[in-house]
Each structure stands twice: as structure tokens, then as C-alpha cells.
TrEMBL record:
Protein's name in the database: NADP oxidoreductase
Taxonomy of the source species: Bacteria, Pseudomonadati, Pseudomonadota, Alphaproteobacteria, Rhodospirillales
Superkingdom as given in the UniProt entry: Bacteria
Native species: Inquilinus limosus
Transmembrane segments annotated in the record for this chain: none
Molecular function terms, GO-annotated: oxidoreductase activity
Keyword Repressor: no
């Protein structure tokens, strides 16, 4: 598959490695100084080449929209109509930033919308899928879970069934288990789970720094649930 990477930051670069290894062809863009991804491109070899944001959008049958939330408007303006009809996998969380460069969840925005719904409004002809927003970048490699008894799930939501099937394949190619969480409006709950993970990291573990160690998984009871007579 031809995949455009917008942009090759912490998440995009990790998925680019996994997808190149799985045999996909990539055009990789960097929002900012593209010289920073020269080592990544060298590592990916002939499976990837550098492009502008617009070129990556035009190249991909599927496009990874892994953009810093405050930069969405500028990136959408740059790609224009290049994403019309394309599967667009967005990984964002609604993180604001203060003048002191402190990040925070935009809770007011989250009450009424999600980054996925916002992007669908901005790109009405694109086929938006939300995925990969709940794993911190350092944990978004299958090797990070090689000794774990439970494989983390990558939850995704979309209103486009066919786009969801393609996304399932790409999640598996990245080394994770795809979990269908329903319609695109469910992105609100996925983003709120991100807030929950921050709370768990802060209160159950050693603080927010331990967020990079946390993930969610759907576990099935084995051999099965233990059914008993209901007590009334």
C-alpha cells in the first residue's frame, strides 16, 4: 500500500518504521525542519522518500495525520483537496499549550467535540479514522510489549466501514491488536480515556512520567465466565 505520513514526529516515525518493515511504500513529511528526519529516511531505505506535506497527502492511498493539535488548521490549508477520497488515520489528542509551553487537555473542547470530528468537518470528503491516540510514542512499538502477557489493543473509530478494515490491517502490520470501538463520534470517549490514563499514571504509578508504560487491552475470560444462579 502507498502511505503518506503527515507528519513524521514521535508517533509518525514509529509507524513509518513498522509499515516499511511490513512492505508498504511511504512518502514521509515533517512539519518543521525536515532535516531532522534524515536518519529515519536512511533507516527506511528504498521503502520511503521525503516529500512535502502536500506531496505526502497526494501520494498516499492511506494517510497518517499525526499532527500537533495547534497546527491542524495550517496543515489542512497546506494539503487542500489532496485528501479528498483518501483514508485519513488521525492520532491526535486535544492538547492545548500555555505561553510557558505547558500542555493541558482542552476539556471545554472535549465536552462538545473530538479531534476526529473536527478534522472530518475540515476535510468533509476524506474518510476519517481515529486510532493510535492512547499509546505514548515510546510504547508504540511491538518490541516494547514482547515480554508482556497481554498485548495492548489499538482502538479505532470511523463512520466508514471499508476505511476501518484497512486500518485494522495497518494496526496489525504495526504489531498490535485492532479493536473496533464503533462510530466516529466515539472518538470523544477515546480522547477522554487519554485523560483517564494520565490520572492513573499520576495516582497509581510514580507520576505522569510513567504514562509511557501504560496501555489498555480488551481481555476475554478464559476458559470463560463462571456463571452461577442469580441471588435476588
Amino acid at each position: 500500500m502507498k502511505i503518506g505520513i503527515l507528519n513524521a514526529g514521535n508517533i509518525g516515525s514509529r509507524l513509518a518504521r513498522a509499515w516499511a518493515e511490513a512492505g508498504h511504500d511511504l512518502v514521509v513529511a515533517k512539519d518543521g525542519e525536515d532535516r531532522k528526519i534524515a536518519p529515519l529516511l536512511e533507516e527506511l531505505g528504498d521503502r520511503a522518500r521525503l516529500g512535502t506535506t502536500r506531496e505526502a497527502a497526494e501520494f498516499g492511498e492511506t494517510v497518517l495525520f499525526s499532527v500537533y493539535w495547534p497546527r491542524v488548521e495550517a496543515i489542512v490549508a497546506e494539503v487542500g483537496d489532496a485528501l479528498d477520497g483518501k483514508i485519513v488515520i488521525e492520532t491526535m489528542n486535544p492538547l492545548g499549550v500555555t505561553a510557558d509551553f505547558q500542555h493541558f487537555h482542552d476539556l471545554e473542547f472535549m465536552r462538545e467535540s473530538s479531534t476526529a470530528e473536527d478534522l472530518q468537518r475540515r476535510l468533509p470528503k476524506a474518510r476519517i479514522v481515529k486510532a493510535f491516540n492512547l499509546l505514548a510514542a515510546p510504547a508504540l512499538e511491538a518490541a516494547a510489549w514482547s515480554a508482556s502477557p497481554v498485548q495492548p489493543g489499538i482502538f479505532y473509530v470511523t463512520d466508514d466501514v471499508a476505511a476501518g478494515q484497512v486500518t485494522r490491517g495497518l494496526i496489525a502490520d504495526a504489531g498490535f491488536k485492532p479493536v473496533n470501538a464503533g462510530r466516529l463520534s466515539g472518538a470523544r470517549q477515546l480522547e477522554q480515556v487519554g485523560v483517564l490514563l494520565h490520572h492513573i499514571a499520576d495516582h497509581e504509578y510514580g507520576g505522569d512520567a510513567d504514562l509511557v508504560r501504560l496501555a489498555l487491552a480488551v481481555a476475554e475470560a478464559s476458559p470463560g465466565p463462571i456463571m452461577r444462579a442469580r441471588i435476588t
